[in-house]
Amino acid sequence: xxxxxxxxxxxxxxxxxxxxxxxxxxxxxxxxxxxxxxxxxxxxxxxxxxxxxxxxxxxxxxxxxxxxxxxxxxxxxxxxxxxxxxxxxxxxxxxxxxxxxxxxxxxxxxxxxxxxxxxxxxxxxxxxxxxxxxxxxxxxxxxxxxxxxxxxxxxxxxxxxxxxxxxxxxxxxxxxxxxxxxxxxxxxxxxxxxxxxxxxxxxxxxxxxxxxxxxxxxxxxxxxxxxxxxxxxxxxxxxxxxxxxxxxxxxxxxxxxx
Length: 258
Known about the structure:
Elements lengths: L1 H10 L2 H4 L28 H33 L7 H25 L4 H4 L3 H42 L1 H7 L2 H18 L7 E8 L4 E8 L1 H4 L1 H33 L1
Antiparallel strand pairs: 1-2
Helix pairs in contact: 1-3, 1-4, 3-4, 4-6, 4-8, 6-7, 6-8, 6-10
């Protein structure tokens, strides 16, 4: 339930498609290169706005709500005293992390996908979203990283339990599960610290509405070519795709053979 729900949610959002790093592809986010020549009121074509309204504004939010409900049910069931075990502790941690990922996905992509096509949520799109994006976006990447490595940890524990049952009693304990969870969260936070400096906010006075609007932009730090090549492209590819995929493939193959 937990894994299925979060996969459905992220499949409809730029969490996967843009690696949570391509600011210029996230709805109303602009690149800093054109900071002096664009207006925050500039929107995409009607076709793109309609597509994002369906995928982000409708599907992501709809599936996200069901994902939150599924995770809540999972946490309630797994938290029962008779369900106390190391694997269930990790699954509860995964459910909590996935819940955070769903919420941040809805804030970053779900709700902003509504306004450009429907005209609803003007204040959120132009006043709330630009200010919270700089904080919610790094939190989303932290949740994403933690979710990936918690999934790896669950597979590793199942591998030990199935292929090395005699060592499972000492390695797969409730106390060790806590250490694994805390370690993964700390690693995820440290790995994604640079994300906090990737964005900035542009303000613009609009006389037509007699109000000031805002839009998120890439920072000059995010525009650095070395940073993009090393951190955003190569490190992300290795840490978020190659290493987890190979690890899961090897562990599951070993479990299947056993």
